[in-house]
Amino acid sequence: MLISIVAPCYNEEETIGRFHDRIHKVAEELLPLGHDMEFVYVDDGSRDRTLDVLQHLAGLDPRVRYVSFSRNFGKEAALLAGLHHATGDSAIVMDADLQHPPELIRRMVELRGQGYDQVIARRTRSGDRITRTLTARLYYRIVNRLVDVELVDGVGDFRLLSRRVVDAVLQLTEYNRFSKGLFAWVGFPGTTFEYENAVREHGRSSWSFRSLLDYALDGLLSFNNRPLRAALHLGMALLVCAGLYTAWIVGAALVQGVRTPGYVTLITTVTALAGVQMVMLGVIGEYTGRIYYEVKGRPHFLVKATNVERTKDLIP
C-alpha cells in the first residue's frame, strides 16, 4: 500500500527538515510491512526559505513531491492541493510543525488494515489554558446543535483517509471550505484514538484569536442555514411583540386617555430593534458573500513552483 503524507507548510523552514527526518524514519519502519510512502508538501506562500528547503529535500529524496503557491491562499486550499496531488492508496493529513507526532502513523496504518476508511487522531487538551478548553467545549456544544454533521472536540485534520474518501472529498468543490466538516460529511466507516497534545517545536502559531474566530464561524455557517431560519423566527417574534405593545398602547389611550409617551421606553425599543436588524443583516450578508465567492468560480489556489510532472491549478 502506498501512503501519501500530505503536509501543508507556512513559514516552516526551521521545522520542515526535522519533520521529514521523523517521517522518513517511520517510512523505513513500515517498508518491511509492505507499505511505501510519498511525501506531498504544500508551501502555502511562505515568506521564509520553506520552498528552498523543500527543493533541497526533493533533491535528496525522490519520494518528495512539493507544490508552492503563488501567495498565501490559506490552510484549506493547501489541504485541497495536497489531496489533489496525492497518488497513494491512503493519505495522511498532518501539520508540518510536529504538533502531530509522526510516530502515530504506524497506529493509523494498523487501524486502516482493520477496514476503516477514516482513522482519526483526537488530541487531549492537556496543557491547554483553562479558558481555551472551556471555550472549545462551549463552541462544540453549540455548533453540534446547529450543524448537519457532528464535530468532535479535539478532532482536527490529523487523520488517515482511504482513497475513496480522498476521491469523495475532491468532489466537494465549494470555495469556502471547512475540512473537518467535509471529512465528517462524506462519512464512510471510521475510528478515533486519542493522543497527548504535543508542543510546537519552533516559532509561534499563525492562528490568531481573530483567525480562530473566523474559522469557528466558517464551521457554523458552512453546513446549515439555521442562522437564517433563526433570523426569520426572531423577526416574527419581534413582530408579535410589536403588535402586542401597540394593542396595549391603544388600549391604555382609550381607557385612560392620551398621556405623555415614555421617552426612555421608546428609545430603548428603537435601539434594540436596530441592533437586531443589524445582526440579521450580518447573517444574511455572510451567506450572500459566500454565494458571491462561489459564483465567481475562481481557482482555489495558483501554483508557482512544483516538481510534480502534471499539476492542475484549477479544481473543477
C-alpha-based Rg, rounded: 25 Å
Characterize the overall form: elongated
Low-confidence stretches: 311-316
Strand content: 15-25%
Helix content: 40-55%
Count every beta strand, where a strand is a DSSP E run of 2 or more residues.
8
Strand line-up in the sheet with most strands: 7-5-6-4-1-2-3-8
Count helical runs: 10
| Ends distance | 28 Å
Topology as a string of helices (H) and strands (E): EHEHEHEHEHEHHEHHHE
Please summarize the sheet with the most strands. 8 strands, mixed
Mean pLDDT: 76
Question: Topology, pairings included?
Answer:
Layout (H helix, E strand, L loop, with lengths): L1 E8 L6 H15 L5 E8 L6 H11 L3 E6 L5 H11 L4 E4 L11 H8 L5 E6 L6 H14 L11 E8 H8 L8 H8 L3 E6 L13 H13 L4 H31 L6 H34 L6 E4 L10
Parallel strand pairs: 1-2, 1-4, 2-3, 5-7
Antiparallel strand pairs: 3-8, 4-6, 5-6
